[in-house]
Amino acid sequence: MVPLLLAASQFRFGRDLEALSQYLVDDVVFAWDEIGTDLLDGSPPGLLQRLTGGEQ
Fold first, then answer.
1. Residues sharing a CB contact under 8 Å with residue 14, sequence separation 6 or more, in sequence order
2. CB 7, CB 43: distance < 8 Å
3. Whole-number Å distance between alpha carbons of 28 and 46
4. 32 contacts 42 by C-beta, under 8 angstroms
5. Whole-structure pTM over 0.70, yes or no?
6. For residue 25, what pLDDT is reported?
7. Per-residue pLDDT at 29
8. In the prediction, which pLDDT does 35 show?
9. In order along the chain (56 residues), what is the average pLDDT of each group of 10 residues?
């Protein structure tokens, strides 16, 4: 989970921890069980492959 959150912080949210916090706490639609690869939007393809094994 930590590598996913670090990648999300850097690539999707541009290191804006306030935006990441809002997304994870205030904008949760389902639950923590449902955190998906949408957090990795904007990540380099190689990193995305390593973190998800190619699954979306």
1. none
2. yes
3. 27
4. no
5. no
6. 80
7. 63
8. 65
9. 84 91 75 67 86 77
| Cα–Cα distance list, 29 to 14, 21, 33, 38, 54 (Å) | 22, 14, 11, 13, 24
H helical segments located in the chain: 2-7, 17-21, 45-52
Tell me which DSSP letter residue 8 carries: I
Q: Kindly tell me the sign of the dihedral angle through the C-alpha atoms of 31, 13, 15, 47.
A: positive
Q: What is the pLDDT of residue 21?
A: 87
Rounded-to-integer distance, Cα 17 and Cα 32, Å: 18
Both tokens of 38, joined, read 């949408």
Tokens of 52: 């998800």
In one-letter notation, the amino acid at residue 38 is D
CB 9 within 8 A of CB 42: no
